[in-house]
Amino acid sequence: QVQLVESGGGLAQAGGSLRLSCAFNGRTFTNYAMGWFRQAPGKEREFVAAIDWSGNYTYYGDSVKGRFTISRDNVKDTVYLQMNSLKPEDTAVYYCAADYQVSMRYHAYHYWGQGTQVTVSS
């Protein structure tokens, strides 16, 4: 069974940075693509970024392109989301997800973490 544990959320000021981490356990990490999604109160879950098993291919949602970077460490079995130039509208619970195929659709991911809160103040 895949287990995902996010960390690194918290409070940041607009224009600041945070780095989220997601530790992967339970299966062979390199068999899985990884994604980050977020959900703000009253809104649908939104695609943020995704990365294939090798780390060679990355995908981003339009609202975070140029500001966020997804990466993975296949030795540490961890995926990261570096968030720069944060905006108040980035405030949400951020979730990491895993599945065999990389996708920008949250329905495509079978495994999910518990989420970590990111709050950006203006």
Task: For the structure shown, list the relevant keywords.
122 residues; mainly beta; seven-stranded mixed β-sheet; four-stranded antiparallel β-sheet
Q: What can be said about the biggest beta sheet?
A: 7 strands, mixed
Order of helices and strands: EEEEEEEEEEE
Q: Tally the helices: what do you get? A: 0
Which value, in Å, is the CA radius of gyration? 13 Å
Q: Beta-sheet strand percentage? A: over 45%
The rounded distance between the terminal residues' Cα atoms is 40 Å
Tell me the structural class: mainly beta
Average residue pLDDT: 97
Shape: globular
Helical residues, percent: under 10%
Give start-end ranges of low-pLDDT stretches.
Answer: none
What's the number of extended β-strand segments? 11
Q: What do you see in this structure?
A:
- With 122 residues, the protein is mainly β.
- 0% of the residues lie in helices and 50% in strands.
- The chain contains no helices and eleven strands.
- The protein has strands at 3-7, 10-13, 18-25, 33-39, 46-51, 58-60, 68-73, 78-83, 92-99, 111-112, 116-121.
- The strands form two sheets. Strands 2, 4, 5, 6, 9, 10 and 11 form a seven-stranded mixed β-sheet that branches. The chain has a four-stranded antiparallel β-sheet with strand order 1-3-8-7, with no helix packed on it.
- The N and C termini lie far apart (40 Å).
What is this entry, summarized?
This protein is an all-beta fold.
Secondary structure layout:
Layout: E1 3-7, E2 10-13, E3 18-25, E4 33-39, E5 46-51, E6 58-60, E7 68-73, E8 78-83, E9 92-99, E10 111-112, E11 116-121
Parallel strand pairs: 2-11
Antiparallel strand pairs: 1-3, 3-8, 4-5, 4-9, 5-6, 7-8, 9-10, 9-11
